[in-house]
Amino acid sequence: MQKPILLGIIGGSGSGKTWLAQHVLESFGPEKATLLEQDWYYRDLSHLPVEIAARSDFDTPDALELDLLENHLIELLEGKGVKAPQYDFSRFSRKKDTLSIEPRPLIVVEGLFILHQPTLAQRLDLSVFVETPCDMRLLRRIRRDLSERGYDLDTVLDFWERIQYPGFTKYVRPQAQKASLIWDSLQDSSFVPAFLADLQNRITRNAAKSTS
């Protein structure tokens, strides 16, 4: 069996890491690439009143089951399928339904803290930190949370000032030093095509090794 290539994509909220992950998936197609989103692994807070859960700190690694995420990555690397949890951000709880993920030659995992946990980081073959200015990240966050997660503007701004920006400074930004590559998403337009070409070469070489 061909050992999958494991790619980590890291960046602050609104940086464009999800866009890059989806672009990779679309470029290689479902037969070659699959995705695990760190956001699926937030801890279930259904035991709390919604107004209390809403004030929880979601921008700390402790808010997620990173061990479960790592275990699922290990299973995929071993050629096993997994049932990934799905998260309801309007209720701050796990959904009943899971998502079946099957191993592929390229496994992409993206999120805020992919390089924070050393044992998880060591499993990556390649990692990209997406660098984007704070003001642009905030604008994107406002747009997403209002349209996709049902939050009001005051809630989004309160999150950003009280939790997200401090969490980025403490936990997310330091991971750039550990990343294989840093992409300046607003300045470096040549990065993505070169990166996709490199990934294709890696997949081709990996496939050749598995048949030799």
Spatial ordering of strands, largest sheet: 2-7-1-8-9
Helix content: 40-55%
Number of strands: 9
The SSE string, one letter per element, is: EHEHHEEEEEHEHHEH
Q: What is the terminal-to-terminal distance? A: 12 Å
EC number: 2.7.1.48
GO molecular function: ATP binding; uridine kinase activity
Keywords: Kinase, Transferase
Protein name: Uridine kinase
Protein architecture, described:
There is one protein chain. This protein is α/β, with parallel strands linked by helices. The protein has one domain: P-loop containing nucleotide triphosphate hydrolases (Rossmann fold), CATH 3.40.50.300. Helices cover 42% and strands 18% of the residues. It has helices at residues 17-28, 50-53, 66-77, 118-121, 134-148, 153-172, 191-211, and strands spanning 5-11, 33-37, 82-84, 87-88, 93-94, 99-101, 106-111, 126-131, 181-184. Strand 4 (87-88) and strand 5 form a beta hairpin. The longest helix is centred in the C-terminal third of the chain and has 21 residues, at 191-211. The model has no long low-confidence stretch (mean pLDDT 92). Residues 7-188 form the Phosphoribulokinase/uridine kinase domain.
